[in-house]
Automatic annotation (TrEMBL):
It comes from Agrococcus pavilionensis RW1. One of its GO terms (molecular function) is ABC-type amino acid transporter activity. One of its GO terms (cellular component) is plasma membrane. It is found in: Cell membrane. Pfam families: ABC_tran. This is ABC transporter. Its main location: membrane. It comes from the Bacteria. It is a peripheral membrane protein. Keywords: ATP-binding, Cell membrane, Membrane, Nucleotide-binding, Transport. PROSITE patterns: ABC_TRANSPORTER_1 (PS00211), ABC_TRANSPORTER_2 (PS50893). Residues 12-250 form the ABC transporter domain.
Length: 254
């Protein structure tokens, strides 16, 4: 009997996420699936809830309702999360922020190893060796002993990416990682992200870089007013958008 092709179970599945800040109902039932080894781009106008979703996937925001599964971890936001659940969520994914948030008083190596050593309790030598190997991969091995202030914005953001990788998460979350960079520095950060995607990292990326989303993402969700209006392969969402709101957003950017 011919067997049906089986789609891989999503690494991440969020269902019905709702979140209000006071009277502002910013997430109004968001669903998101990210298959293992794929890149999911979250696009849409400012204020549509993309960052709030992303932060919810790392426990930096807590939705008021909805469910989330990442790997083996299953959470139901309609009841308070326990301390263990929060810690497990924080471990499952690692976030690369818009501003890199590096500690100015620590060297590059110190910034990359502080999480693995202090938070995860890993051995110093092992954490240092892993960090140096990761820095090598993004071309920053020789900056290990430098302080963040001596690096360019693009180099700082690459350290931010290495810091996330060093936590050995099951997926990476990027919140507009290039939007605070000078235009000439954007390319080097997108290049690292493209390499990570090619290596098979599972990634969710909030981005205004629609060229990156089009070329690198496997799937795109278009957000507007707290819901995913449209999702699909980039060639479909960009090339043949179905929804009026998606069409208007893309036209405005042309
Ligand atoms: P996007 O990433 O699409 O620009 P956000 O998720 O950042 O959208 O924001 C969605 C809405 O939630 C905005 O109106 C924003 O002002 C509001 N918001 C986000 N975070 C907070 C917060 N911590 N406190 C109050 N309002 C917030």
């Amino acid at each position: 009997m011919p067997s049906e092709p089986i789609a891989p179970a999503p690494l991440l599945a969020a269902r019905g996420l709702h979140k209000s800040f006071g009277d502002n109902h910013v997430l109004r039932g968001v669903d998101l699936d990210v298959a293992p080894g794929t890149v999911h781009a979250l696009i849409g106008p400012s204020g549509s809830g993309k960052t709030t979703v992303l932060r919810s996937l790392n426990g930096l925001e807590t939705p008021d309702a909805g469910t989330l599964r990442i790997g083996d971890l299953e959470l139901d936001f309609s009841r308070p999360l326990g301390r263990r659940e929060r810690a497990a969520l924080h471990r499952a994914s690692a976030m690369v922020f818009q501003q890199h948030h590096l500690f100015p008083h620590l060297t590059v190596l110190g910034n990359v190893t502080v999480g693995p050593i202090r938070v995860q309790g890993r051995g110093k030598e092992e954490a240092r060796a892993d960090a140096l190997a990761l820095l090598e991969r993004v071309g920053l091995r020789e900056k290990a002993d430098a302080y963040p202030s001596s690096l360019s914005g693009g180099q700082q953001q690459r350290v931010g990416i290495v810091r996330a990788l060093a936590l050995q998460p099951s997926m990476l979350l990027f919140d507009e990682p290039t939007s605070s960079l000078d235009p000439e520095l954007v390319g080097e950060v997108l290049a690292v992200m493209t390499e990570l995607a090619a290596e098979g990292w599972t990634m969710a990326v909030v981005t205004h870089e629609l060229g990156f989303a089009r070329e690198v993402a496997d799937e795109v969700s278009f957000f507007d007013e707290g819901v995913v209006v449209e999702r699909g392969a980039p060639e479909q969402v960009f090339g043949d958008p179905q929804h009026e709101r998606t069409k208007r957003f893309l036209q405005r950017l042309q």
